[in-house]
Amino acid sequence: MNKFISPFALLINNLPLIFSLVVKEIKVKYSGSVLGLVWAVIMPLVMLCVYTFVFSVVFQAKWGQLTESKSQFALILFAGLILFNLFSESLSSSSYSIIGNENYVKKVVFPLEILPVVNVFVVFFHFLISFLVLVLFYFIVEGLPPLTFVFIPFILFFYLLFTVGFCWIVSSLSVYLRDISYFVSIVCTLLLFLSPIFYAVSSVPVEYRPILSLNPLTPFIENFRDYAIFGDLPTLGSVLFCCFSGFISFYVGFLVFSKLKKGFADVI
Q1: 90 CB contacts (<8 Å, ≥6 apart)?
Q2: 128-152 pLDDT per residue, tens
Q3: Fewer CB in a 10 Å sphere around the end CB: N or C, the chain?
Q4: Which of 75, 99, 257 is closest to 178 using CA atoms?
């Protein structure tokens, strides 16, 4: 039973340390720049404008059968994109979370498990800024957000568990196999186009929809978009899948990391 609760217990016991490392990483990222944290706002705004122009103006893309305006399409696109980036950027940075912190590995008392978690929360900080941009843009275009906004923390909680679990696996495997970072880059690129970000699931030919169902990110993106943009309540099955996959990823990732970390010092 102790093993079952140990991942949460470890994170809760080290919250002050995690918070201080996250703040340190954010400060280092923007140190020396003229605009500082303003770049965290500029980047999602630029991304929003570029993707909206390319897909809604150049390609004349539409979201399924909807006849939405370009601004509405931008909201739908941006919502899926920022959620996907939370996973892909966390996974990419986790490839170096252990091998890039050799000094921590050599310290016997340091909880190495928190290093990938720190990376996830740094990315999550930027996600929150992008989310605020989304909310502001929604308010300008549509008015008040839907009531389903209150469920967004629920889906984000399980999405973070899901992401941390995979980051634990990737960070621990990267110590023994340095090619993991290249593999992660390829997988993230494939997932980008196999996720319902630039298109609706309903617009995909029926015979190819099972491929999307194999993508574990699909329910998270669909549920997040339902809560944030459409104001719809997703199906019970998709919600349960998000809960189940979040917990499974979290605990499996923790067990894999705990098993492999015993040899970190010898390899690094």
Answers
A1: 119, 120, 123, 124, 163, 164, 167
A2: 999 998 998 888 888 888 899 999 9
A3: N
A4: 99
